[in-house]
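Recall that a protein's primary structure is simply its ordered list of amino acids. Everything else, from secondary elements to tertiary packing, is in principle encoded there. The following example makes that idea concrete.
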Amino acid sequence: MSNEIQNYTLIPNNMVQNIISDNINKPSYIQLYGKRTVTYFKQLIELQNIKEDINYSIDMILWKIGIKNSLNIKKERKYFKDFLINIHKNSLINFNSNINLQKINSSDFLVSKLNIYDYKEKEDNKKYKINFFILLDSEYNKIMNEYSENFDKYNLLNLFCNIKSRIFINSADTLLTEKKPEVSYPSYNTIMNDIFLESDKTLRKYIDELVRLDLVRFDYAGDMIIKNSNDKPIRRKANFTYALFKEGWENELENAITLFRSQKREVGWSFLTKEKEISANEKRSITQKINMLEKLFKDKNLTQSQNKELKQLKRKQDKWKVEYDEGINIRKLEEDKLKDKYPDKDLSEIYDDMGFENKAKRAYIEEEEEEDNNEIDIKSIGE
């Protein structure tokens, strides 16, 4: 990426992520207002003047998006009008006068103010925006103008924003020796819960499209094995690790995965070589073959050799299903192993030593709550 100044938009994280704050789940704006949400808000933000007033009409916003004389213009106008009605209902936008949004025309002139950012007051008593990421115009334009026709450009933009909003960014004054990899690693389930992509297969195709557009790169730490208290092996796939496509992305991914493996080994995991891994495509192929052979068995058309193959495939399937036991509380399993390894330390201290700030904070809060509960129990016994 060149050193020239680039235009950009500040996008709140909550626009593309479900956020849990004070035990309250705040759904992403995408989930609340539809897949065009990021695009609509970006156009509104760009039109803000120095007083943060926005002067616009529905047709102006659609024109900025590139929807001008489309055959679906009537439908697109309705989408944006419904969007305005819903975000106004939830106080994310205010109008300078009382208007009936149901009755406005697409050419009517509107003046609004947005209320979408979180703020923090610093020592100088000034308020600063927090909990946002930067969407470059170059990134936005590449997605909206260069995407393949078999992809939905809004879903592709939302996926990129979801990944980028989670990428760790080192502060400008961080020493070189203290810098952490600038990556993110949301699970497929996390992404699909945030935005409108509903299958692993579809999500993977969209990720590959972002790679084709030279927006992201990703790698994979491999399959992991950990043993529970009964010495039973439990298997999990590591999440993809994502980096933005920029100079040095190879080092970001390599360092992130090396660090991830090191941290996971610390809590009891071991990693399989890629030769031993069973890919999702392999599993899908085996499952489909089993279904086909079981249908032949049901119709009494199964040959002896096919019956033997069916039994072999089912044994293979049963093995990976047991290994990927979804009923296991992985977090508790990891924490129990850490406590066994460092019996003289609280979990919060262990996590702090490992550099897991958020986990250390969570463990400390839970330890304080447990201590308070124990104190109440002791008092009640005394009474």
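DSSP finds 15 helices and 14 strands in the chain. The two ends are 69 Å apart (CA to CA).
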